[in-house]
Amino acid sequence: DRQVHEVQSYMGHLETSDKESVHLVENEIQARIDNIFSNLERLEILSSKEPPNKRQSAKLRVDQLKYDVQHLQTALRNFQQRRYLREQQERQREELLARTFTTNDSDTTIPIDETLQFNESLQSAHRGMDELIGSGTNILQGLRDQRVTLKGTHKKILDVANMLGLSNTVMRLIEKRAFQDKFLMLGGMAVTCLIMFLVVQYLT
Asked: Which residue spans adopt a coiled-coil conformation according to this UniProt entry (predicted)?
């Protein structure tokens, strides 16, 4: 949990980072995400060795952490895609503005075709960003739904575990009562036999 919160904190620095440091922040976040994934693999192995009554709860916890980290990984990739498209647009805009034109130069004309192509590229980039944002939104919603489902499943498992614990208590009480009844029956039979023996001896 602590490592996940640290990555979330670093994610908040992405939007405020300048061009020179944003790559360093991205690399730091990716390294931390990779480290968490590595730790989760070890946790999965350890959770499989837990006692049966704790194994399912431990597995659910690992799965929840895995979904949280996958969500962070998706958010990082979406940010990198948006940054790449933004930088590409800025480069194309600077190239267009850097073009110089001189008067009375028959060989130097406004490149209408290139301008149109640039506008088409901008529109295509905007459409790509919209698709990326929509895809990211769908992924986030899917992760939220899966998390809600996991929480519901976890609650049901705990309810079943509690019910099984109650059932085990009732079974132990029944077994104890059956043992006591058996002991009382044997004791009653012994007392009855003793009384019958004494009566026979007295009458004879």
From this structure: none
